[in-house]
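This section describes the prediction task in plain terms. A model, or a person checking by hand, is given the sequence of a single protein chain and must write out its three-dimensional structure as a string of tokens. No templates, partner chains or ligands are provided. The sample shown here is typical of the held-out split.
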Amino acid sequence: MHLSHLNALRALEATLRHGSFSLAANELGITPAAVGQRVRSLELYLGKSLFIRSSSGIEPTEDALRIRELLEGGFARLAEAFEQLKPNDAAGRIRITLPESFSENWLAPMLAEFQHQYPDADLYLDPSNRDIDLVREDYDLAIRYGPTRDTVLEERVLFGDFVAPVCSPAFADQQGLGPDVRSLKGVPLIHVTNRTKDPGWLDFQAWGDAFGFDRDHLKHGVRISKTGSGLQAAAAGQGLALCGIVEAFHALKAGSLILPLGPSRMCQTKYAYRLLWARSRAKSNLRALFVEWITDRSDRFVSELDAYLASQGSRASG
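The expected answer:
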């Protein structure tokens, strides 16, 4: 078998598992066109079609479905073999893939705590929005924001999220923002545009619809694709930003950001942050320690968030 055939089989397996060239491309880190080209090259070599293509998408043929489990098991065994070949010093190393915004705005401020508890641990973080394949790629853990969908992965739900407007205390005073405000006319807005596919995630107009705000006063403002930059702009007093409470929490706790309209103007999201690892990957003490640490830290975060929101609700009612 040529190496090109192995790459094509990898593209075929990912496409069968995800049901589309686009989702397979996200996992493999290549373009959908490249995935389609690899699958097509395999079809030409075999002299048969593996997918029925139409304007509504693709459907696997009976031949493709018949070998799906063989492909999945084969690549899983290859990953296990690679795991056995890794050097012994890998026992003191842990590699984690996680969303860039989550890493920057929630996890990073707490990493010193983990390093203090486990000073000999080598922690490698890959803040990336690419959907890493934990079974076949060299990662120990993943933190993902999304729905449950992987049957080959172990999963632990960490916590959900809320969407709410935040700003600096000085900005709120300047604009006269408070729980009784019913219009954002003339208020500078910061729109964070590079967002999740969560059906419960709202932009300013959808958020305004939920609480009876005039849509015409929710279109203006600055548009920023990176959450961290949007939060920094809000903390600098440049506007009112709509963001996830998880991402804003450290700044809210420190007081550089506030919920000017109160906790009653939050919308709960549909997805949750989840910790995942492959069942087939060899267990390590360091992975178990990190799972225990971040689970405990997540429980503490939920308690701290509940206490913070309760204090804000009491302040608004007072």
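For orientation: The two ends are 73 Å apart (CA to CA).
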